[in-house]
Amino acid sequence: MNASRDTMNDLNRGNGETGRFFSDVEDLLKRVTNMNDADVARLRDRVEGSLSSVRDTVNRNASRVRESAGEMVDTTDEW
User: Fold this and answer.
1) Nearest to 17 by CA among 70, 62, 66, 48
2) Which of 47, 60, 39 lies closest to 21 in space, CA to CA?
3) Residue 77: is it exposed, middle or buried by C-beta count within 10 angstroms (0-12/13-18/19+)?
4) 14 contact partners, CB below 8 Å, separation of at least 6
5) What is the pLDDT of residues 34-63, one digit of tens each?
6) pLDDT per position as a tens digit, 2-24
7) Cα dihedral angle (50, 56, 58, 61), rounded to 10 degrees?
8) What does the alpha-carbon distance between residue 68 and residue 43 come to, in Å, rounded to a whole number?
9) Which of 12, 67, 72, 79 is deepest in the core (most CB within 10 A)?
10) Neighbour count for residue 79 (Cβ, 10 Å)
């Protein structure tokens, strides 16, 4: 079915956008790594922790959505 393929394509496209976001944040963190300002260092540490947490959550949720979408594809193909 086209609708189920479209859903899977949308999920994959979202993964690319999310991946670019994470890459951009990581690049930003790398650029401020050598800054000696204490406030920047604290903020960088917080952002690194948050980024790691969000990445884990996004990966877990994306896996669940992919599994559900796959089940949906299988179910609609049976009809």
Assistant:
1) 62
2) 47
3) exposed
4) 62
5) 878 888 888 888 888 988 888 888 888 888
6) 555 555 565 555 667 778 888 88
7) -140
8) 37
9) 72
10) 5
- Asked whether the beta carbons of 7 and 69 are under 8 A apart, the reply is yes
| Tokens (6 digits) for 69 | 């979408």
C-alpha 64/C-alpha 61 separation (Å) is 5
User: Within 10 A of 41 (CB to CB), how many other CB atoms are there?
Assistant: 13
DSSP 8-state code for residue 66 = H
Query: Which amino acid is residue 8, in one-letter code?
Result: M
Cα torsion 67, 68, 73, 74 to 10°: value is 70
**Residue 18 DSSP SS3:** helix
* Degrees, nearest 5: CA angle 18-24-29: 130
